[in-house]
């Protein structure tokens, strides 16, 4: 049946960790990362990297573009080229309150294909001191290589809570 999700890997964070890595991408299917109840320190962004052989690729080959949808002010445009991660998939960097909670969905394309660039699309929401912030956009890792997973990390410190689940979309 089309449109089913098959769980590949999951990790629930209950004490501080620097990153969460989920592997198991082994086909050319689309994959989906679900992230819920994420808590990172104030002034930190939720960021992603592809993994190759289970190790995060930290090379400067990530290009991204996002739209920040804010309840308290105007929308923002965020873009960069040649970064070392997919950047602000979840944005908290301008906030000073601890314990901000985020949720989101990221779709992963071409990850298993060694002849194509891997790319993502994302949508996320964050509850913070001034209301709700949404991020929507995508990115591309400009290296033609097979990637077997995804690493999630906070740019400004450890992840203290959250559930991260990788699914295959069939």
Annotation keywords:
170 residues; mainly beta; 8-stranded antiparallel sheet; 4-stranded antiparallel sheet; 0% helix; globular
Structure description:
This protein has strands at 5-13, 19-23, 30-39, 46-52, 55-56, 62-70, 76-83, 101-109, 117-128, 131-144, 149-154, 161-169. With 170 residues, it is an all-beta fold. It has one domain. The strands form two sheets. The protein has an eight-stranded antiparallel beta sheet with strand order 1-12-3-8-9-10-6-7, with no helix packed on it. β9 and β10 form a beta hairpin. The N and C termini lie close together (8 Å). The relative contact order is 0.37. The model has no long low-confidence stretch (mean pLDDT 88).
